[in-house]
Amino acid sequence: MASEKLTDYELKRLENIRRNDEMMAALKLHSKATQLSNFKRQRVETKSYRVKSEKKPKTENPIVIRVRRSLRTRGIPPDCQGLDGDSVCPTTPPEEKPPCDVSLGPLSMANVRESDHSDSSFIESLMGMAQDDSVQKGKVVDSLDLESLSLDPENIARVTSGRITNVTFFPSSSVRMLAAGNKYGNIAFWNVGDNEVHLYHPHKAPISGILIQPHCFSKIYTSCYDGVLRLMDAEKEIFDLVFESDEKIYALSQPTNETSCLYLAEGSGGLSIWDNRVGKRSSHWDLHDSRINTIDFNCENPHIVATSSSDATACTWDLRYINDNNLTALRTFTHKRSVQSAYFSPSGGSLATTSLDNTIGIYSGVNYEDAAVISHFNQTGRWLSTFRAKWGWDDKYLFIGNMSRGVDVVSAVQRKIAMTLESPHISAIPCRFAINSYEVGMLVGATSGGQVYVWTSR
């Protein structure tokens, strides 16, 4: 009766099961499976135990594993204060050296010296230059033959580590010495062609200005993004603390007719005067809506000053006309993005601006109303100092770096790029420039890897 209730499919299935059991019994598979199961159980029950070795005592000097952690994971905001302007897509960063601690107050030159050799010869040379009457001669005004400019290997040196933010020549006809400051607060001195570089670390943030006193080379003012203004006094062999601001100092300048007053770009658009005669800040004006990047005085009329700012403007001011402790701009030059520099030409008759909107502006005329805009790619990225077009020895040419490791020579007369200085010896992008006013054709370009390239005229 039970079998009658099963379907044909179920009957067939039962028949297959029966035949499979008979086959497995014939092959003794059931007994072998049982033996295998018992064997596994015995292995589990008789497993061995490891004997733990004695714990080694801790060493007195434990090994410390240093793990690099990003600023974000440590809860620290990104370090953008060393940037010279708006940043774009970063390029490959150069090898840079981490900063060391620097104390406030007077610093002995010996204590902040980072070069291996003694600085006694360097100090003696500075004192000798200060006593040399030949350095007081007037500037050379010979015309420049661009084709005569050359870059020799002996005029190339890595004077410091990290990005150079400021470079200048000593105003001398007897020596070819330059000074360069980097983003870590180092100041390097190099007599072009020598094997020795004299390196000091008097600051702890990017150097924003270097002022060599024209009548006393042994006294050099340096400013820094940390708000500190120092005076390097080679006679006393110290970096003295002159002024400590609550704001960052972004630029430092001095008119040719005032040796006792220093002009500082402080904070978000402020311009201050530090008077050494009274030892305090004598004046302060809020001129721009954002930081001032450069301060430059007209050599023919030192009362006229030009400022460039990250608020996308450059302005000219007359320091003689102050109403209710306020200054009114004589003229405002507007760009679409941050203006990184505004420099007067050697005669004072023209003004050149450099902006992150990829333009160089050249303004001339009585009130600088004659304007010319020249296209130039100025997007250097985060790891390079921003480009700043620098006048040569006359009003004809400007020099500015390009992203192809060359130097573009801009003709202010033709209002276009006249030529590009190139050399197989250049391995990095020159960003910041300075000329030796006493030697036509001597031009230095500084890189973000701490190198300087010095062109000379054949």
From TrEMBL:
Region called Disordered, residue ranges: 75-102
Q: Which PROSITE patterns match?
A: WD_REPEATS_1
Q: Which UniProt keywords apply?
A: DNA damage, DNA-binding, Repeat, WD repeat
Q: Which domain of life is it from?
A: Eukaryota
In its UniProt record, a GO molecular function of this protein is:
DNA binding
Question: Which SMART domains is this protein grouped with?
Answer: WD40 (SM00320)
Q: Which GO terms describe its biological process?
A: DNA damage response; regulation of DNA damage checkpoint; response to abscisic acid; response to water deprivation
Q: Does the keyword DNA-binding apply?
A: yes
Transcription in keyword set: no
Q: Which GO terms describe its cellular component?
A: nucleus
Pfam families to which the protein is assigned, alphabetical = WD40
Family label: Belongs to the WD repeat DDB2/WDR76 family.
Function (record text): Specifically binds 5-hydroxymethylcytosine (5hmC), suggesting that it acts as a specific reader of 5hmC.
Protein name per Swiss-Prot or TrEMBL: WD repeat-containing protein 76
Species this protein is from: Phaseolus vulgaris (Kidney bean)
